[in-house]
Amino acid sequence: MSSATLTDAELLAEFEQAFALRRQVDARLTELAGELSARSQASDGLAGRHGCTSAAAFAAQLGRISQSSAGQLCRLGAATQPHLSLLGGEIPAAFPAVGAALGDISLDAASFIVGALSSVSSRAAIDDLEVAEAALVEFATDNSADMVRKLAARWCDALDPDGVLPEELPAQRFLRRTQLATGMKRYVMELDPVNAAFLDAAIDASVGAAIRKPRFEPAPDDAAAGADSVPVRDADETPALPLAQLAADAIVDLARHGIACDNRQVPLPSTTVVVRMSLESLQTGIGLASIDGCDYSIPAAVARVMAADANIIPAVLGANSAILDFGLSRRLFSTTQKLALIDRDGGCGWPGCCRPPSYTEAHHMKWWMADGGPTDLSNGVMLCSRHHHAIHDLGWTVFVENNVPWFVPPSSIDATRTPRRGGRLPEPALAA
């Protein structure tokens, strides 16, 4: 049957079946690649006898796949399968939980878990590594590989806090410029988390302002008569330009603002680098801090230094008698309330959405006008424009449990209406 003749439900069902089959095939390929690697360790091993320099090169030849894909299979197979020692004894797999779950989790997610935990395995306790592996595998069964990568980075921070942001990392920053034949110019830049935080904050503020800026065009019936322009979208609809172009424009605007400081079009006054840490870490400089928009933590001592150059919003809001709940007396969430919601949701609270706080607005879970929902933290969630419309137009509902927003799809999308976790990623919990 042609895919064009499938109903929506049939198309999605076949997608799920095909991905399930792919995971089973990938699991078997990984197991075989692990054995191929074990038999190809010596120069006269299996790969060498077939004229290949490595197991990955041999696997690429056998499967007619890229060297990088074959290398992923071989590395993952070697890490998740037991193998024999030189004396003939069996050495257990380094990541047995990942190996056991390969039929249920994707190859990419498994690679992210193994790669992240391998990078800290020499400096972390065995019990903690086992807890981290189990937690990441469980998370990977219900979440995308990109979300697994982000959570794995947080586990690395928890397992090896001393290894976060080494002193040599800022020295690796660079900017390369290449003139293209088309006349365009390509910029490639790498920054450490601290320096990137300032640039990200400025770009996100500019893009967020562009997203919420209304566009206007002449009214259709009166265009010839020169009638006044009318808005063609509200602040929650998709911007006229792709986000990548808006981000590029933001960098140019920053340069223009630096050259002509009287340019007030750049929303720099509203730009804030948000660094989150506990009060104890702020006072002592011991522990970790996080920067909004960055997957990796930084030492609290570095965050304290940043306080001299950027406004740091405290993680515990509502201090100094700030009012967080307004009940039904006001419709819009206050700035203080939004900061509290951002602290809880991290940006757009929708499951798997990575839009930063500057792209989002506070949404009433129980509508203020139609349902009498209060403008309280317990009734608010941060959403980007796309997912704000999904809530209103498609019939999703939201509730908060243990400070975590959960999104319930309508029956037209999921007949079981199984809630999906949103908000920030779960905090790593090390073994006792």
UniProtKB/TrEMBL annotation:
Is Nuclease among this UniProt entry's keywords? yes
CDD domains reported in the protein's UniProt record: HNHc
Does Metal-binding show up as a keyword for this record?
no
**GO molecular-function terms, A-Z:** endonuclease activity
Highest taxon of the source?
Answer: Bacteria
Q: Which InterPro entries would you find in this protein's record?
A: DUF222, HNH_nuc
Residue stretches making up the DUF222 domain: 14-345
Instruction: Tell me the keywords, alphabetical order.
Output: Endonuclease, Hydrolase, Nuclease
**Pfam hit, one:** DUF222
Q: What is this protein called?
A: HNH endonuclease
